[in-house]
Amino acid sequence: MDVDIEKITSLSERDSTGELQKYLSSVTAEQLTTLITNTALKGKDIGALIKAIFKGSPPSVADGVSRRALLYQHCISLCDSGDLQTEVASDIMGLLMLETHSLPGPSLAQLASLYVDSIKAGMMGNGKSLELFPTILTALAGTEALAYGKGELSGEEYKKQLINTLCSSRWDPQCVIHLTTMFRDVPLSPEELQFVVEKVLRMFQKMELQEIPPLIYQLLLLSSKGCKKQILEGIVQYFKHQDEQQKSEQMEGENLDVEVQSIPQDQLRHVEGTAILHIVFAVRLDYELGKEFLKTIKAALGEPSRVLCSFSIALLLSLSRIQRLEEQVFDFLKGAITKCFKDEQMQQGSKFLQDLVAPPCSVSSMILETVKNSVFGWDHVTQGLVQLGFILMDSFGPKPGPFGKTAEVPSSLARSPTQLACQLGGQVLLEGFKMHEQIRGEILEQVLNRLVTKTASPVTHFIDLLSSMVTSAPMILLESSSKVLETFDQLSYLPLSTVEGLLKAVQPLLKVSMALKDSLIIVLRKAMFSSQLDGRKSAVMGFLLLLKNFRVLGSIASSQASQAITSSQVQADVHSRYNAAANEAFCLEILSSLRRCLSQQADVRIMLYEGFHDVLRRNSQLASSIMQTLLSHLRRYYEPEQDLLPPMKLEPCISAQGDQVFLQEPLAHLLSCTVHCLLWHQGLQARKPLIEDEEEDDNDDEGGFQAELQTMLESMTRRMVKSELEDFELDKSAEFSMASSVGVRNSIFATLLMGLYEVLIEYNFTTANYNKNCFEELLQLFSRYQKLCEIVKEKAGKGRASSKAPRSLLSLGFISSLLYALFRDSTQSREESLSVLRGSADFMRHAVGVAVNKIQQLEETGHTDGPDGHHADKTFHHLCDITSVLMWRYTNVPPAVEDAGKKAGSRSVSVLCLEGLLRVFTTVQQRHPPDWQSCWAPLMLWRRRGEPGEGLTEKLPFYLRQFQRSLLTQLSGGEEDFSSREAQLLVGVLAALASRLEPGSPQLDQMITWTLKICKETSFEDVALTKGLLSLLFSLLALQRSPVTELWELCQDIHSQLGDIDQDVELEKQSHFNIVCMKTAAPTTLLVLAQVGRLLDEVDWLIALKKSQAAVDKSNADLSQAPGQQDCVLKAVTLQLGTMLTALHELLQTALPPGVCSDTLLRDLSRTYGLLTALLKYYIQLCQVPSRLEKLVKLSGSHLTPQCYSFITYVQSGEGNGGGEKKKKKKEEDAMMAASVKVLRQTRAIPNLIFSIEQYEKFLILLSKKSKVNLMQYMKLSTSRDFRINAAALDTMLQEQQEADSQQTMVTQSPEVSQQPRKKKRKV
């Protein structure tokens, strides 16, 4: 029969339940399902039909139950088919949910099994029916008992079994999102939720990339039930794996020259960005989710490679926009970055650590990768990047040193963790500036604000960043020119170094923006009349920079004179014809402004004189104007009458204000500037091609001032040679005291005169063309200079003059040429003339001494005085030439040759050469590490010119052997031939060269063997040499292995030399290292303890690493790590501590002198016990006691703790060196006793040590209880504090007092017990 839907609905509406049941009973299952299907497809009356079927199928009747089950099964499959409209399917599911709880348990179990089977078979379709599954599971959990197999289960257990089965089965990737959504509505226990989350996270790898963000969204909603940490870690690990896979594919593609990409990079980045947005949105709604993520990240800081990656850092930066998390996020990132750099530094400095631990992951590279990835629409990350960059630069930038000064180290040479962190901040901001237009204005504004506001601290890192920004995108900065103009208005109030850096940085902008240039000119003109000296100096500096960089048409610039500040993006030809006239007028206008500086203070004039040469070198067309200016100014101080002596007027160079006399005109700098400009111009004319006819008039003018200057300088030289010091009122009787105006005046005159002599020496050498007569005149000038120096030095020695010598005005280029001529020039035609200079040992010594001073200045400041002193390339070129000459001179001229003419008390040329070489190597390592090979290039040439060139790696051992032979020569000679200074310098040079050896190379092994042999066989009682050799040994051993064995042997030698704290003990004389003797033992002790401290740092780092790894493993329930992998580090830690305990055991029995040695030993002992305690805490977590730990505890109980108590008693009794038999006066004894008591009173080392020992014993007891191993059997607890009161010593003192009362005549005699400690002190 045909089933009539209208009849069913009408019966339902008339409440004819009996008739409705009867009618439905007559309908077959097939007819009913067909009716439901047809009605649902039509989309109308399906709700009424389902309600009628429910009404006519009461759950109390078996027939009704089966009909209901049929209805549920058919509707579920019908909704999954996808044939129904969404609204119809939703209505059906809603009606079914209302009646689910009325179903009996077996029916619910049958429906649940149907769902599980459908999911296993991948037949869920669109997943619409899954809306009903949570209701079924909830109802199922409420049933009392259900048949399961041969037994019964409660509804809750049955639900758990279903979920377990479901999560263990295979899921179709298309239904994962639907299932995750479904589980949000299912009541889940923590264990069930964990099953579900683990299953969903496992499915990440099988899903399409586009489906990941919606799945993450559903997971985050599911996290409200729990498992927040697991969900977040799973998401991070998935994207971390995807990034690693893409990197490996990219590297593989580069190796094969093909493109291998399973997932397009841009697609992956966009998915990551969407996922980050979902997580940030979820954290805004659920703060606990953000707290859990930070907690997870922080817990993994000990092993950051587990959770830190580009994605997690981007997520952190996005979360930083949430105010409650901002501070925590940036504190974590700062800590992670500094920890990363510190770990890298720790490992790089120790081969011992490199062999034990793999290199740490680079957080800095992850952050830079995040910046690079942010270009794929990660706008939510960019603000955090900007904030992070400035936080790093503000927190870790250079700090002001003493008196507000700081050592200028280029950012490219950053080495310390703080410098590297600051450099990373700059890189983040620069890359962000290049990639993201929306943050450029903010970055520029914040950089300029810091330049203006941070006047009390260095801002070189911000200037470097600004310069890089201008170079990378100058046209973009022009769009924000208003901000630059605002900064210009503050120029006169900024420090000089900031002004210089700022103007150099924005120089390219001035060439393309007339408004910026005009504004700067106005600001500089105002600054020229500033009431502040620094303001006027800033104006001079700014004008000089403009003159250097706006060249007039026709100016010839050598390769060295090319502009240092250029930009590939500045497409403006400033040398073209149409603006040449404008540039010339502009430059002449600036020159007219600068002429006003010739009437200002000496500092302003010096700056002007030092800048004119660079201007001339870059802008040769200004030569006439500059030279005329200098010449007219020089005439004021020049005596034109050829017969009058002296030729220079010094009186106008000073001015007086009341009783104060000060320098007004730095005449020597003026003459130096004039000479260098003249020499450069003459060289330019010699190199310049033929000039056009119309420029001949200009040449006549130039020739005029050239001829006049040459005549003036020749006359000046001739008359300065004839002039005696008395002509300048500077003879030996002159007063140089800085307390009187006459003394100040004479000091200023002496400084000016020495500078004039030096300038004339340089000019005459340069223009002499190796003429013998000129060189003789030059030596006469030097004799005058030397005589004046000796007078000033003599007065300074008597305390009547300033002891600080003025800086030499000789240029570095001249010194380079002079040294080559003195020592290396073998041209036959120059032999006769050069023999004049070579005949003066004082002159050669002075030349090398000036070179050493120049190199020292270069090492300290990065530049030198004089022309090209700030030009890094030319300075480095001169440095290489000087290095070649000094090396040749030291290795080819025996010291015996020069000793004959050496004055008493003066340093030999060889020692000066060696000092210069050491400073060169130090300077190059600090300031030019990439150019280390270039520094040696000249040295490769003069050794074996006929052979093919060799690299530094091949030649370095050759030079090391040379210096080794020199040191052996020093050590093998007698004490009368021994030069302590030269030996120390040789050790320094060897250390500098050996640091360039490759770790693990045979050359390094040979160097270590040689150094060990020297230390063991040398017996010179020279403290400085001993410290130098041992420092060299330790630095070399750090590149190969741990020096703990050598430390133990040194401790034995120190014990043998200084004696035992127990005077009754006679020590067997041991001598592993002959370099340790009575005189050098105490300084060696400090060196050894410093090394012990370094080794303790390494052990501390390893223990902290193991503890953090254990914490991460525990949180991840991953304690099943291979024991061998753990044992490798722990075994090394135990062995290291054991050997150090043995070494400290020796020192604790040594009669160390009171003071620094004892205090340092006590502090190192406190640290040792602290590390032993930390190791115990680690094993307490593991609840185990390895045999080697037990041996270590036994060693500490037998060799360390008892000796600690004895040593504390020794220190508190005020004893000095033991075992000595020499006597000192009573006053010396009392003074040393008072000093010892003072040190004891001020120190906190002893209480700290006692606390450390007691903490160690406390955790020993705790570990013994947990592990059931009695570790305290090796320790002797000190409950009575008997180390504070020595009973025997107390009895002796009481006995002395009684004897003193009974016999006054015996006062001077003391018992042996109390006398011995004083004997020990006498040997200090």
From TrEMBL:
Polar residues bias spans: 1296-1316
GO molecular function, one term: DNA polymerase binding
All residue ranges annotated as the FANCI solenoid domain in the record: 66-283, 381-544, 809-1033, 1048-1291
GO BP: any one term: DNA repair
SUPFAM superfamilies: ARM repeat
TM region positions: none
Pfam family, one: FANCI_S3
FANCI solenoid 1 cap domain sequence ranges: 6-56
CDD domains in alphabetical order: FANCI (cd11720)
Region of interest: Disordered: 1296-1324
Domain FANCI helical: 288-373, 558-793
InterPro entries found in the cross-reference section: ARM-type_fold, FANCI, FANCI_HD1, FANCI_HD2, FANCI_S1, FANCI_S1-cap, FANCI_S2, FANCI_S3
Protein name (Swiss-Prot/TrEMBL): Fanconi anemia group I protein
Species lineage: Eukaryota, Metazoa, Chordata, Craniata, Vertebrata
